[in-house]
Structure of Steroid nuclear receptor ligand-binding:
Amino acid sequence: MQVPVGFLGKLWSFVSFLPFFILLLLLGSVKAVLIGPVAAAIVFLGNSAVIIGLWPAHFIWTYYCVLKTERIGLVLKILIGILLPLPLLLLPVIAIVGSLLGGIGYGVFVPLMATFEAVGEGVTDKLAHCFLDGTASTIAGACTVVRDVTDFCFHSYFSFMDDLIEKMGDDETPLDIKLSYLPRSALIACIAVPVDVLMISAVALWKSPCMLLKGWQRLCEDLVGREGPFLETVCVPFAGLAIILWPLAVVGGVIASFFSSFLFGFHAGLIAYQEASFQMGLAYMISAVAIFDEYTNDLLYLREGSCLPRPKYRKADIQKGETGQNKVRYSATTEPAEKQHGHNKHRRVVLHRSKTFMQTIQRLRPIQIWDWLFRSCELNGRILLGEGLITSGDMEEYITKGRGKKLSIKLPAWCILQCIIRSAKSDSHGLLISDDVEVTNFNWPKDRVFDWMLGPLLVIKEQMKQLDINEDEEMSLRKLIMTNKNEKPSDWDDSGFPSDDNIKRGQLQAIIRRLQGIVANMSRVPSFRRRFINLVKALYLEAIEAGAIDGSRDVKRRVKADVASGKIGEEGTAADVEGSSSTGTLGNIDMV
């Protein structure tokens, strides 16, 4: 597209944009007024009913698991038993307030954003989409939110509690605390919370006008000059909306700073406990304000660093600093002046990665990694179904009862292991999720969940590279993951695994167990469970229509009813994955 050049061109671009934006804003506001209350009521009533309805069971089961678990020591159990009623009693109140605010925000902003998205590039019949988008889809999305919250309360919570009461291994020790450290930690927390809350809130309030003005300046410059986030035509309609909503973002940042300051204060008490030092806790209390000040300076492109003191709050860091100073003194007295000068000059050379290079990297979005996994499960699920490693009983159990380790844990674990094996054989630096897409630290989504996943997967890839798996062993692994326990090398004695090396078997079994643990944590994400159930239903119906299995009449009727209502087909199948990855980045995935 052509970017306006010169003052008159930019002025005309801005003036011609205003009527277009105002009409879209009015239409989106009308839809928000009409659809918003309905969506907000669904989210508020649905989430509140689920959380409050399950609250007695959660209250009792939480206490039972805490008292039963072997992973928590006696002193910590007593302390948790005393303090636990407060958060459990506040849970219904937090649920009601959160559901109300979340429902209002969802009901207002989703129709508004859908109206602006309807005029983007690649949308046919924009006029009809401007009026229709954000109406029925907002209601359906509100129901999906309630379903995800229900999945979390029914599935994820009890899955966490089941892990808590599992028996510990022989090499594990229970988590406990020392009573002698508690008074010091409690005193530090009592001092640090009010200090950090006041100081961090003051810093946030002091810099909020700067954030407001700098944000408006940058958005207006990008809008008029068609640069930055508004360079593409699809982003232009959002320009005015972003400018109008920017004060809300500033207010949200100040509120988030206020609540995060409590965490800084309580963390000071934790530092005092970990370091067994009153001074270290006070040092963190002061350092937390400096850390926040430095972060806001970086965010707003102000001066580097912070004008506030930042004392060290770890004894190990202090000892390292003292050791470094001693080394410098020693070198200063023993080395000649010219050599010392050259050494210091060399030591100051620090290689920084090119900022321009980092900006050119197209970082993958979390939804693309998610889509890859589900499409891989679909493709491999068909193969395993044809080989008899997945049966109709497995799918029916998962569809009706919502649980089944073979499908929800073992199938995704095999898909990830297959990707790791292929990456190891190709000597890739990262993970090959397609022929032309390699996932590395540079393009991996900057998301907490995905950051937690990538490190272990890269370590496992290096382990698989050392094991040098051949094709026969790879084919055998598929059956072993789906059918065997994989707890000790002797479990593979009669499995037909080509290698008799018990060390290699033990290493592979440890890798399989680790992958299954990663997938078990992933399955607790509500959207994972919803999409995986839809995926299994789609595979089940496809197998019945192809004559591969004879399904139960009741389950078949239930799945067909879901198809008729539109619950299946919206997500979880390969066609949907290709559609969601509209950029084409993952459109050529082949995991088979």
Observations:
- The longest strand covers residues 431-432.
- The radius of gyration is 28 Å.
- The CA atoms of residues 46 and 146 lie 6 Å apart.
- The beta strands are 431-432, 438-439.
